[in-house]
Amino acid sequence: MRVTKQRNLILDIVNNSKDHLSAEEIHKESLKSIKNISLGTVYRNLNNLVNENLIKKIKFEEFDRYDQINIKHNHMFCTKCHKIIDIFEDIKISLKNKFGKINDYEINFKGICNDCLEKEKE
Amino acid sequence: MRVTKQRNLILDIVNNSKDHLSAEEIHKESLKSIKNISLGTVYRNLNNLVNENLIKKIKFEEFDRYDQINIKHNHMFCTKCHKIIDIFEDIKISLKNKFGKINDYEINFKGICNDCLEKEKE
DNA sequence: ACTATTATTAGTAATCATTACTAATAAGGA
DNA sequence: TCCTTATTAGTAATGATTACTAATAATAGT
């Protein structure tokens, strides 16, 4: 595995974004630094970074989105505006592990975010 | 919204399956009863049934899968054989609901199922 | 039950996120 | 610095899903 400027850039973009960017958005952003970086390169590197556990893929609705691996956290998907919100609250779950070897879990919430609730009041 | 034999058949197939079928698999199964049911009809009805909360869509890897709405439960995805396993154990989570109006949540586990663990031993 | 309305269907074409392919490029070890 | 080969840019292909259209069938009103 080689270190390339494309790979570093993509990792940087994901790690420095507060949103949960799609591959398309990451490509658009990376074009600002490397004017001819290709969409295929973005997809390939995103997959590599996910496999190496450097970033995380989020599958809610629509297309996939990518998130940094900092503090373990979960997400809420707003069914109105399709925004994904970080939930950093510590949620403890206990489970008798009889299903196999569980390596990871994530809790996905769905609902209506505060912004949309405000708009509904108007 | 009208009751059609196509719609009923699709709902029946999802509700009577122990697996988590894909749209393609549901189409193949429904062809046994309605010899010329189209794939588009299957997709359209699946979406309708999800919107009416009669079935549930599961988004792990690959394509989407569909599951019945019986007892509230969660899923584990085996990263080896790509099987989806039901987890009916009651998992309590507590969360200060300050993110909006949460309507639903699901806990998605990833790991290696017992079948695959057995095979690894050999 | 008959008819009119219109939602739903079968069949097919289009879309669009993602992956595959290929020749050119560049990372990094010798 | 050179050589090997992983990675890239650019583009074509794939494949799940959605859109479109004329034909069909469900249901409300008579």
What would your notes on this structure say?
The structure is a homodimer of 122-residue chains. Chain A has 122 residues and is of the alpha+beta class. Helix content of chain A is 33%, strand content 27%. The first copy, chain A, has helices spanning 5-15, 23-30, 39-51, 114-121; strands at 21-22, 55-58, 65-68, 74-78, 84-87, 100-113. In chain A, the strands form two sheets. Chain A has a three-stranded antiparallel β-sheet. Chain A has a three-stranded mixed β-sheet with strand order 5-4-6. The interface between A and B is medium-sized, with 33 and 33 residues.
Order of helices and strands of chain A: HEHHEEEEEH
Helix-strand makeup class of chain A = alpha+beta
Strand content of chain A: 25-35%
- Could you give the distance between the termini of chain A? 54 Å
CA-based gyration radius of chain A: 17 Å
Q: Give the largest interface.
A: A-B, 33 and 33 residues
- Measured as a percent range, the helix fraction of chain A is 25-40%
Mean pLDDT over all positions of chain A:
88
Gross morphology of chain A is flat
The biggest beta sheet of chain A is recorded as:
3 strands, antiparallel
Unreliable runs of chain A: none
Tally of alpha and pi helices of chain A: 4
Read across the widest sheet of chain A, the strand sequence of neighbours is 1-3-2
Number of strands of chain A: 6
Oligomer: homodimer
